Amino acid sequence: MERITCEDLLALLDSGDVQLVEALPADAFAAEHLPGARNVPDQVSAELAGLVAPDRAAPVVVYCSGPYCNRSKIAAAAFVRLGYADVRVYTGGKKDWAQAGLAFEGSRASTPTTVSTISDAAAVAGRPS
């Protein structure tokens, strides 16, 4: 499982070819999350994985609060065990995203935004399409 940077994640978001997963409790996800992300608040079951990342061949990027949080690594390992071909961990997580000055979605987000597809997430994050 590969670790990626904020720049790598933004490039994937620009391409529209990524399934972005937050591995934090539901309340943390509701408060703020990266644009286009889906939530895996607990253990990753086959059923839940299929809902948040239906394409086993497309890249899955898992993140959590930051570099000292292990939830993203645990969830990513579960996706690998379930047969996902390309699983990556954004180790910087929410902390790195915020430090880069990028937008969040959710109830605490400074400018709540609705993203209809993951391919729209780059635009919401302030990246040109």
From TrEMBL:
Name of this chain's protein: Rhodanese-related sulfurtransferase
Biological classification of the source: Bacteria, Bacillati, Actinomycetota, Actinomycetes, Streptosporangiales
Organism domain of life: Bacteria
Stretches of the chain forming a coiled coil according to its record: none
Keywords linked to the UniProt accession: Transferase
GO molecular function annotation: thiosulfate-cyanide sulfurtransferase activity
Gene3D superfamilies: Rhodanese-like domain
Rhodanese domain span: 14-106
Signal peptide: none
InterPro entries (alphabetical): Rhodanese-like_dom (IPR001763), Rhodanese-like_dom_sf (IPR036873), Thiosulphate_STrfase_CS (IPR001307)
